[in-house]
Amino acid sequence: MRVWITGAGGFLGTNLVSCLLRNSELEITALTSGGEKLMQMFPEEKRLTLENRDALSRVPDGALTEDILVCCAYPRNTDGPKIAEGLAYIKDTLFDAHRTGFRGVINISSQSVYSASRTSAADEKAQVSVESVYAAGKLASELLTELSSGGRPYTNVRMASLIGPGFDARLTNKLVKNAASGGELRIKGSGQIFGFLDVEDAAKGIMSLIQTDPLKWKPVYNLGVKKGYTLPEIAGTVRDVMQKEYGIDVSVSEEPGEAVSDTTLDSSLLEKDTGFSASVTLYESIRRIARRIMNSYGN
Predict the structure, then answer these.
(1) Which of 79, 197, 228, 265 is the most exposed place for a label (fewest CB within 10 A)?
(2) Are 176 and 155 in a shared domain?
(3) C-alpha distances out from residue 133 to 80, 83, 141, Å
(4) Other C-beta atoms within 10 Å of 155: how many?
């Protein structure tokens, strides 16, 4: 079976390619504007084909009836024209998917389509609440996926906030960078619970859907961890990793905070249908992030 991936050069995309290549029965076509990165990561891989991001538009009608499409591409840039361009690409890709006859389409959406101020884990029946440009774009991608399906199987995967090596804009990575320099970690203790998902688990969760008959997919799945983490728990884990793995003592100081929210997702529907549940611990996620950052410092 061949799996096509848009946005294959991005954070999730590269990890998904790596995960899929561990299955010897799969072939991958990566649609990306950053093919050099994938060439460096997988220089000898014969089952990986790199194509320009618009390559699907040149495929004949009805030629891909045995294939699966995973749409990871999304304009993270908040620049208005870039967002408009990115959404137009998603629209064109999804309608090309219908034209070429994909067996199933997996659109990567986000937990951001639920309220950011929710106080409990959201399941797929939770009220959708668009509170940012990013969330509006993700909801638009879901609607386009449904609109373009033409009755063919599809699903929208509402992904938890991803963490992992190389995604340095995330809170976890910033805390590790501060700790690596021996700095004190200053945090605000509050009722915030973060539903961070390791990117390796994210890739495996998508894989579980690829290995499931598309005719059995639900229109929406949440993909996240069973238990979220408070900010003191995250900072404490960073402290423990730096001490145990690198002998760096890090102090954590906590100030009172007032914010209350819970960004975790109830992923029991995905587990029921595919058998998948996230397994990478917070400690292991932080350890991998720290290893990447410390290696960049020459340690």
Answers:
(1) 79
(2) no
(3) 9, 9, 12
(4) 23
Count of CB atoms within 10 A of residue 66's CB? 10
> In this structure, what are the phi and psi dihedrals at residue 14, rounded to the nearest 5 degrees?
-65, -40
Cβ atoms of residues 58 and 99 within 8 Å: no
For the chain, how many structural domains are there in total? 2
Neighbours of 22 (CB within 10 A): 10
Is the same domain home to 278 and 176?
A: yes
Contact 188, 254 (CB under 8 A): yes
- Specify the DSSP element, H or E, that contains 271: helix 268-274
For residue 109, the cross-strand partners are 158
**Of the candidate ranges 2-16, 227-241, 254-268, the one whose mean pLDDT is the lowest:** 254-268
- CA nearest to 286, candidates 195, 176, 121: 176
The pTM assigned to this predicted structure is: 0.95
Are 89 and 173 within one domain?
no
pLDDT tens digits, one per residue of 71-115: 999 987 667 888 899 999 999 999 999 999 999 999 999 999 999
Cβ count within 10 A of residue 264: 25
Given a contact cutoff of 8 angstroms between Cβ atoms, the answer to whether 12 and 199 are in contact is: yes
Does one domain contain both 93 and 184? no
Same domain, yes or no, for 74 and 205?
yes
Single-letter code of the amino acid located at 7: G
| H or E element in which residue 205 lies | helix 199-210
113: containing domain: 2-162+197-223
Radius of gyration of the chain from its Cα atoms, rounded to whole angstroms:
20
Any idea what DSSP says for residue 138? Answer: H
CATH assignment of the domain containing 291: 3.90.25.10
Amino acid at 214: P
